[in-house]
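Supplementary notes for students who missed Thursday's class. We covered one full example, reproduced here. Read the sequence, then the structure, then the short commentary at the end.
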Amino acid sequence: MREAVHGALTQEARGVGLEVRGLAKRFGALQAVQGLSFSVQPGETVGLLGPNGAGKTTTLLCVAGLVRPDSGDVRWNGAVLGPERGRQVTLISETPEVYPMLTVWEHLVFVARACRLPVGWQDRGEELLERLALADQRDALGESLSKGMRQKTLIAASVLAGTPALLLDEPMIGLDPRGQRELRGMLDELRRAGGALLISTHLLESAEAICDRVVILKSGRLVAQGNIAELRQRRGAEQSLEDAFLDLTQ
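Structure (token representation):
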């Protein structure tokens, strides 16, 4: 069953990885992101943490190409991403939007045709639906799905597409316990298969469980980055990730 996830990744995922360089974005008087730089290497999961208004979602939208930054750029394997970035980067937003008149399975068909997936992708698609408890909703229209079901549909489609960089905004919110467990398993498999994963979350326990490193923002600026152990020891003594996060952001 894990082959469905591993097989979805392309060999591109073995290169340099995702790089954000000097990213800045202003909305009127609000400087949402200021000179932000970090990277996500192939085979790595990076958590994007920060309080409300820190610039996490704006950062993801800029990386995905849905918002144009005022300055800075985003690169994959050293090359600046342009109009074709959808081949390298996929974003699953906190508020998942699906096609209302397509069924769950038709979303997978759409992705398979758009990405020109090889013959046999249907088996992988079926396995993804089973793992995410979507098999019974296979023929349900998008407009009838709950938020959690819409999110699962997009996760299945994104994993099937196999883009080497995957961005997720609050992926655990709206999922039931089984869905959360399966998603954690899939993310781990994608990471081990060479995927570059960037996950924005308020759930520090989730970040601690699934992230290799974290990037912490405050008011659009980078205030710290590193692995969990490094952040816990930043004051010279062991502290919880929550304490370290609050020290950095308050």
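Commentary. The longest helix spans residues 177-192. The two ends are 44 Å apart (CA to CA). If anything here is unclear, bring it to office hours.
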